[in-house]
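Here is the promised in-class demo. Please do not try to memorize the tokens; focus on the logic of going from shape to residues.
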């Protein structure tokens, strides 16, 4: 066997692999002997089938199978041994492979294209400046959050007159067809311009409205009428609605039961303490989101200021092959800058991790998995012995699923977070305090 690497430049190369008869014949001959002992061919006694007949029946397929196995392990081992930093994996030249004469050939040549990644340098120091945002919730957002929590924890009860936010029960019918149904209309689904037709009504009142104007889109029409989306698409015209009941969510009272329900028994003991704790919680939640934005800004900074040479042609071809028809060449062209930046950031952070000996052990993967499950169980921080055993089983089952893909994903997440923490410890920051509104605009822009 011969392997020759032909570099076409800093970012591209071709790998030529020559497979000779001595590389595959011994294995094939042994397999043919086994086949001959087991083959059942009409006209021959079991185990007495001539080797020429066995070879004619199975030889070509065995040859192709064995050579493909040799290629698979040889090419990957060569890349590893030569420490070639490449994009994805080598791509075989399918055009040349299709011309191979498997019936008559004994020596075979295979060609692979490689996208090489040359050595690159990055700056990991306090010369890198990134803005870190601190969010402070203002009284307006605290008040809005409190209203929402009280509504969520409140109780539904009957009301006499419709106000915005109510749910109206009644009979809806079309004035131009025979459609009629008993339904419930959430007033939040009604368009603002038509809301005045519903607000102020009481049991027994009849409301007439244009259904498209009242509900704006066909999805909402399907929701309030009980129609399918397809039926809603062809529905229009004037409808009537006879009110039979009004349901309203009455907000929870600000008492100790409410305080304990939101923050745990005894955490706060007064409305003033509750508001202080609520503001702290809102700030914590938004600042967690600010950490996500910080990570995005770090990524932007490194991608923009680190020169990483990449073969665009190879990357486009690799994306097309690796996604197996899930995306088209046109889609790749349209979003190529995103794909390229994703690859650059992956290469940069992996190099930073390698240069700084970042490691992830099995215990860390298990710990992160259990942490995710605990969040789903309401953010538990301590576990009983029985619950600890349950969490361990859940983690093991999850990580073993999908042929280990969940394990690899969790491993990569833990590794990325460790690299990110290292980067954050080395660079410098400009801290900027902003309001919730300002932060939400920034987050949307990113």
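The designed amino acids, position by position:
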């Amino acid at each position: 066997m011969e392997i020759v690497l032909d570099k076409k430049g800093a970012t591209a190369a071709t790998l030529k692999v020559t497979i000779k008869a001595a590389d595959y014949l011994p294995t094939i001959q042994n397999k043919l002997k086994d086949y001959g002992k087991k083959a059942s061919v009409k006209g021959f006694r079991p185990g007495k089938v001539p080797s020429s007949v066995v070879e004619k029946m199975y030889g070509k397929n065995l040859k192709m199978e064995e050579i493909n196995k040799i290629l698979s392990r040889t090419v990957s081992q060569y890349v590893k041994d030569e420490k070639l930093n490449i994009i994805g994996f080598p791509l075989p030249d399918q055009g040349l492979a299709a011309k191979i004469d498997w019936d008559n050939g004994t020596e075979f040549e295979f060609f692979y294209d490689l996208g090489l990644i040359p050595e690159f340098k990055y700056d990991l120091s306090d010369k890198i400046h990134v803005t870190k945002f601190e969010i402070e919730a203002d009284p307006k957002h605290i008040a809005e959050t409190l209203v929402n929590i009280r509504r969520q924890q409140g109780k539904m009860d009957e009301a006499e007159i419709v106000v915005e936010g109510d749910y109206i029960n009644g009979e809806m019918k079309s004035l131009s067809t025979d459609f009629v149904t008993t339904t419930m209309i959430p007033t939040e689904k009604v368009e603002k311009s038509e809301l005045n037709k519903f607000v102020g009504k009481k049991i027994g009142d009849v409301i007439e409205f244009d259904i498209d104007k009242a509900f704006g889109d066909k999805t909402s029409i399907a929701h309030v009428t009980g129609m399918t989306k397809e039926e809603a698409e062809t529905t229009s015209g004037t409808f009537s609605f006879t009110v039979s009941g009004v349901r309203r969510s009455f907000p929870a009272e600000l008492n100790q039961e409410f305080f304990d329900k939101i923050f745990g028994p005894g955490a706060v003991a007064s409305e003033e303490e509750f508001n202080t704790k609520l503001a702290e919680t809102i700030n914590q939640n938004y600042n967690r989101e600010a950490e996500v934005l910080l990570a995005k800004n770090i990524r932007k900074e490194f991608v923009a200021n680190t020169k990483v040479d990449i073969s665009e042609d190879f990357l486009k071809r690799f994306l097309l092959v690796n996604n197996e028809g899930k995306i088209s060449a046109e889609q790749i062209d349209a979003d190529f800058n995103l794909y390229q930046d994703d690859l650059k950031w992956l290469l940069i952070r992996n190099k930073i991790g390698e240069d700084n000996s970042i490691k992830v052990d099995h215990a860390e993967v298990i710990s992160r998995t259990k942490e995710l499950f605990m969040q789903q169980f309401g953010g538990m921080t301590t576990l009983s012995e029985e619950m600890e055993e349950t969490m361990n089983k859940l983690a093991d089952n999850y990580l073993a699923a999908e042929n280990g893909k969940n394990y690899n994903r969790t491993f990569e997440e833990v590794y990325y977070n460790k690299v990110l923490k290292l980067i954050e410890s080395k660079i410098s920051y400009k801290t900027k305090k902003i309001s919730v509104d300002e932060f939400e605009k920034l987050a949307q822009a990113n």
